Amino acid sequence: MGWEALEQWGDGVVRGERLTGGVGVNQVWSMRVNGHPAVGRLGRRSDADLAWETGLLRHLHREGMPVPEPIPTTDGRYFADGLVVMTYVDGRPPETRADWRRVADTVRRLHRLTHGWPQRPGWRSSTDLLHAETGTRIDLGVMPPEGVVRCRAAWARLVGRRTCVVHGDLNPGNIRMTAEGVALIDWDESHVDVPDLDLALPHNAAGLDDDAYDTAAQAHAAWEAAVCWDPSGTDQFAVKRLAEIRAV
């Protein structure tokens, strides 16, 4: 249906301008809902996928984490025809070591609040991919075989760890330092995995020892290489990330 679905949020919705987030995956626009700033995201995720994501955000909001809160339609649904409308989170990206330590504390809280959370529909964890070939945006079949071996060797170091929800894309653009605390936005890559994937932070803000940091950094590089790889092998970010993973 496209943006016509906005009608289901009532007459008090005004769409503003397109934002840079979600390029290639979603259309993300600024808007106002009943006079309040908001963000609308239109994509092709399934209803089950969006139910998982909006349910997670509502859970974290109830627990006091400053996250984008899904705004319901006039009949009480939290998404419609691929469209999600969420509260706008203002703030700045992390800049200092102290900022990143606060980010690490917030990420660990996310992990504590979601132990045992069900997997996002259609997704696979890093350790699932030791045996599976595909999962949502990942298709190991299009990667160089030697690269797959290196990615799987990095993920094999995570076997046996307890799982939880990971944000999955903790770059500075997805983090807001606010008066209420550290807010994490853009949960499009969130899924259930081992917490290590979120903990290879700048300045080693999570305080990992050398071996734990190396494990997390290698697993995260492997994940980003696999997620971003395209069949032509020309995605330079993916190529760079793959090059960071040690040969077996």
Q: What would your notes on this structure say?
A:
- The chain is α+β, with helices and mostly antiparallel strands and 248 residues long.
- The protein is built from 5 helices and 10 strands.
- Helix content is 29%, strand content 17%.
- The longest helix has 19 residues.
- GO terms for molecular function: kinase activity.
- Keywords: Kinase, Transferase.
- It holds the Pfam family APH.
- This is 3-deoxy-D-manno-octulosonic-acid kinase.
Report a brief summary of the structure.
The protein has 248 residues and is of the alpha+beta class. The chain has helices at residues 47-62, 97-113, 145-156, 210-228, 236-243, and strands spanning 13-18, 27-33, 36-42, 83-87, 134-135, 138-139, 164-166, 175-178, 181-184, 191-193. The protein folds into two domains: 2-87, Phosphorylase Kinase, domain 1 (2-Layer Sandwich), CATH 3.30.200; 97-243, Aminoglycoside 3'-phosphotransferase, Chain: A, domain 2, CATH 3.90.1200.10.
